[in-house]
Amino acid sequence: MNKIWLISLILLIIMTGCGTRIILKAPVDDQTGATEEVNEDDYQGDTEYLDIEGALEDATDDTEKNENSESKSSSQEIVESDIVGYHDLIVDLSDKHLDVDITDPRLSDLIKHLKTNPYNHTLKQIGKVTEPDHLFALVNKLNQLPMSYIPVDLREPEIRFTFTGPDEKRNLRDVAASSLEAMFDAADAASVQLFALSGYRSYNRQRDIYNNNVSTRGVEATDKVSARPGHSEHQSGLAMDITSESAGFNLIYAFGETEEGIWVKENAHLYGFIVRYGKDKTPITGYDYEPWHLRYIGLDLASYIYDHQITLEELYIHVEKAIHLQ
Predict the structure, then answer these.
(1) What pLDDT, in 10s, does the model give residues 176-210?
(2) How far apart are CA 312 and CA 114, in angstroms?
(3) CB 294 within 8 A of CB 79
(4) How far apart are alpha carbons 49 and 213 in whole angstroms?
(5) Are 171 and 199 in contact (CB under 8 A)?
(6) Structural contact between residues 46 and 227, judged by C-beta atoms closer than 8 angstroms
(7) Parallel, antiparallel, or unpaired: how do β-strands 143-144 and 127-128 relate?
């Protein structure tokens, strides 16, 4: 009897002590007063499992190690299939009026880029990012990076992270890494302590994350919170998720209301970054509010977007329309 009790106790300890997942708390709902539990792997942000020490425990390592032609084929089918659920997530911007002064010098480089690299803004198809190395590359639900794309200039910025040990998500492209280092230095000077959580993520990693979510949630629910493979800005090497101690070192909506989150919102553009998925912009970006997700776009575009409080989608489609009217 004692032996059975001892074995049961050991099994209970193993089950409760291993594979612990960090659960993020969304803000209290204004209508119900209830809090919603949000899994960290829901986001464009850091869609992985973490143990209680904060060390990486990739949920899909076994899947990546045992890839076969069948799994690759099925994941590609998910990407190339009709945009299931997107019609409920994204509004058609083609008829929306937005004043864009294309004589603004901050837009000159973007105009050159868009003249030779137009992007897809229709819900009827998936566009291909033809120049993925360009800093202005538009990566979203309607425009996909190549499966084989890996930035050649990835490096680890010398900043604080929420975890230790090597991992691809510590990396950014060189220009973005340098700018993030400068931003962290400025934050430190203002007594604002930021932490990086997730940067570059490969196509394969995003594919396995997405497929794992689809298997448990279904396509429609997954598309509201998770990028399809090839559609994550993290693959571009230009996006970093950041957090703070006041946010529990997690990715939570409330980060935007912390001292650190407010500082980031007001200063990120000075270093070429934008808060990519703004509040009340979900119908345009297709993603929930993510105050932690920063995208490097360069000083000129970052300042223009900050001044006009618009998204990349709004800016690009209306600059393209203005170009065609010339």
Answers:
(1) 999 999 999 999 999 999 999 999 999 999 999 99
(2) 13
(3) no
(4) 12
(5) yes
(6) no
(7) parallel
Type of residue numbered 244:
S
Q: Write phi, then psi, for 23 (nearest 5 degrees).
A: -110, 130
CA atoms of 159 and 21, how far apart (whole Å): 25
Active-site residues, by number, are 290
> pLDDT tens, 280-319?
998 899 888 999 999 999 999 999 999 999 999 999 998 9
Q: Which residues contact 51 (CB under 8 A, 6 or more apart)?
A: 19, 20, 57
Cα 241-140-138 angle, rounded to 5 deg: 95
CA distance 66 to 68: 6
Global pTM reads 0.76
Where exactly are the structural domains of the chain?
A: 69-325
Map tokens 């049961």 to a residue: 8
CATH of domain 69-325: 3.30.1380.10
C-alpha pair distances (Å), 17 with each of 10, 129, 227, 254: 10, 44, 30, 28
